[in-house]
Design the sequence.
């Protein structure tokens, strides 16, 4: 068993606990945390130095924009090289080599701090960003190779949590460090050098993975690799939208972070340490939001979190724009961070999981360059808004809030089905305690037909809860036409089936057949109606027409716990006790795939046995 296989076996059981129990994965988290932390400590020291050197407050935005631009420039210039190296060589070795370069850079940083030269400080900042540029594709690309499929989203969640917390806490710590030892630059430098050494030692203990083995000549054109990545995105709309979403997030984040420095000085009138607490509040929010996003996503990726996060950030950015109270600002920033965690985790998880192993570096490098350009635009925009248009920070936050609200609307319009599915899944979690077993039996790509028993009006939501992939369900027409519910069913692309009309039935089955031919998931309830006695009725033969001539598996699904709920047909009454309406335990069991030639009677028995936990 090679190291990568050993690591995957460690993470076979799902949950954050099993990930954190692996000392090598924990070492990886700490190493990348300290790297991001140190980068932002130094960046904050440079930012405050820039503000102190400003002739007046009117030019402080320009100094901040310059330091931000210097930090982003290497991501634009060198991301193509970094992606190629990550796809050719062991990502473990790449992480260790690039991390060790941080020590050399911090030694130069000590000299720059003691010289008190802004030009030297900017040069070191550029070198730190260069090190981070080469570190990033290996950092994000190693996860799919180091952990199992069922843990990839949780691992991504932890990575995003630690990265963003490191960014914001590093900013806070840098503020306090600058205020305490501004006149003692040697101490500032030695602290950052110590962090670099510790991070490098931890990097020696990260999971070992083999080289991805990408072939072909090394592209010396720094933008050639990025051009190839952008070219690939033209035919991969979901991935392209993901990269645009991540770049938008970093654009807003960069503008927000620098405006917050100005907010502390010009609006709240607080010293560097209290300004650092503002970033700490943001970090706490990001941490809680990231953990919640990972928990909601579970073993899959929940893209419906993205517009929810954008909405939260937009509303509370406007609240922040309307306050001059330090305590209110702290609380508001924590909520904004929570929304940021909702946005960042699913987008980055999708970016890391979707590309093939030998193109992850290219796509992550393409993403890094797009992020760099977005952040550069943000720094220029800060200069325009603050120094030319003379906007105060409150006006900047207000504009950001409106932009985030607009972003939430746009994302909802682009992927309404995912948003509606997320809303329904959230309601299902509020109403039921849902346990899913066997979700790994649903293929992550390609066609499959989900076949479930039919106990209640909520079965499509519950069966679809077992997979992150979108499922189109065939739905009995009387349910589809329930007043007020049809717009929701239309958003979910339900396929109504009218058993009283042979032609309509054939059209519905043909539509489902075409979905399978296109490699999609389709769900069907072969009983044809909701059970009236709690027992699984005879299966109709319609599913055979749906799957005829298509080489794809049938996935048996059994829903248990809904019989007796007001959404079932037991008793027919809606005025039930509180404990029946809310939080009953529901179990969704997914069985082993079966072949397309399974007969209705056989399939019915398999669904029954799946409910009993019988695996053949």
Sequence:
């Amino acid at each position: 068993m090679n190291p990568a296989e050993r690591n995957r076996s460690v993470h076979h059981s799902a949950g954050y606990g099993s990930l954190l129990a692996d000392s090598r994965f924990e070492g990886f988290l700490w190493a990348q945390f300290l790297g991001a932390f140190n980068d932002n400590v130094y960046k904050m020291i440079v930012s405050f130095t820039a503000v102190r050197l400003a002739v007046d407050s009117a030019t402080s935005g320009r100094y901040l924009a310059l330091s931000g631009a210097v930090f982003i420039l290497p991501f634009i210039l060198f991301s193509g090289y970094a992606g190629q190296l990550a796809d050719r060589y062991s990502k473990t070795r790449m992480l260790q080599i690039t991390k060790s370069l941080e020590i050399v850079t911090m030694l130069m940083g000590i000299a720059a701090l003691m010289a008190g030269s802004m030009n030297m400080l900017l040069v070191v900042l550029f070198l730190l960003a260069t090190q981070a540029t080469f570190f990033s594709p290996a950092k994000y690309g190693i996860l799919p190779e180091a952990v199992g499929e069922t843990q990839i989203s949780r691992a991504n969640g932890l990575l995003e949590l630690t990265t963003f917390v490191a960014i914001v806490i590093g900013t806070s710590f840098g503020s306090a460090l600058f205020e305490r030892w501004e006149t003692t630059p040697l101490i500032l430098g030695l602290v950052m050098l110590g962090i670099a050494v510790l991070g490098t030692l931890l990097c020696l203990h990260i999971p070992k993975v083999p080289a991805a083995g990408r072939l072909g000549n090394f592209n010396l054109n720094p933008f050639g690799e990025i051009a190839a990545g952008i070219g690939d995105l033209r035919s991969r709309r979901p991935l392209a939208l993901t990269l645009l979403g991540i770049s938008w997030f970093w654009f807003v984040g960069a503008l927000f972070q620098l405006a917050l420095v100005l907010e502390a000085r010009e609006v709240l009138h607080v010293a560097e340490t209290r300004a650092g607490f503002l970033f700490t509040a943001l970090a706490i929010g990001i941490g809680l939001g990231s953990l919640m996003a990972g928990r909601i996503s579970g073993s899959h990726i929940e893209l419906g979190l993205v517009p929810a996060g954008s909405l939260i950030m937009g509303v509370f950015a406007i609240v922040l724009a309307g306050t001059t109270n330090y305590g209110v600002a702290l609380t508001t920033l924590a909520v904004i961070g929570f929304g940021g965690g909702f946005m960042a985790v699913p987008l980055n998880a999708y970016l890391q999981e979707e590309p093939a192993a030998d193109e992850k570096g290219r796509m992550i490098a393409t993403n890094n360059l797009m992020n760099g350009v977005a952040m550069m635009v943000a720094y220029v925009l800060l200069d325009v808004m603050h120094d030319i248009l003379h906007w105060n920070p409150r006006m900047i936050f207000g504009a950001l809030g409106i932009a985030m609200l607009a972003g939430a609307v746009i994302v909802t319009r682009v992927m309404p089905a995912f948003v509606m599915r997320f809303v329904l899944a959230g309601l299902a979690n509020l109403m039921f305690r849902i346990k899913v077993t066997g979700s790994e039996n649903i293929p992550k790509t390609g066609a499959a037909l989900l076949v479930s028993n039919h106990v209640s009006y909520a079965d499509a939501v519950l069966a679809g809860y077992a997979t992150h992939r979108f499922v189109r369900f065939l739905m009995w027409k009387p349910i589809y036409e329930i007043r007020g519910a049809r717009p929701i069913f239309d958003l979910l692309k339900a396929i109504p089936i009218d058993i009283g009309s042979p032609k309509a039935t054939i059209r519905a089955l043909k539509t489902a057949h075409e979905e399978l031919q296109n490699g999609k998931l389709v769900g069907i309830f072969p009983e044809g109606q909701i059970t009236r006695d709690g027992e699984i009725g005879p299966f109709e033969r319609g599913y055979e027409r749906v799957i005829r001539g298509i080489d794809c598996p049938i996935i048996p699904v059994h829903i248990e716990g809904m019989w007796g709920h007001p959404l079932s047909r037991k008793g027919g009454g809606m005025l039930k006790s509180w404990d029946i309406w809310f939080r009953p335990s529901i179990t969704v069991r997914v069985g082993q795939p079966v072949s397309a030639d399974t007969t209705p009677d056989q399939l019915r028995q398999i669904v029954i046995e799946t409910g009993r936990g019988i695996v053949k």
Notes: Confidence is low (pLDDT under 50) at residues 1-13, 572-578. The first helix runs from residue 3 to 10. Strands lie at 433-437, 448-452, 471-476, 495-497, 521-524, 554-560, 585-590. The radius of gyration is 27 Å.
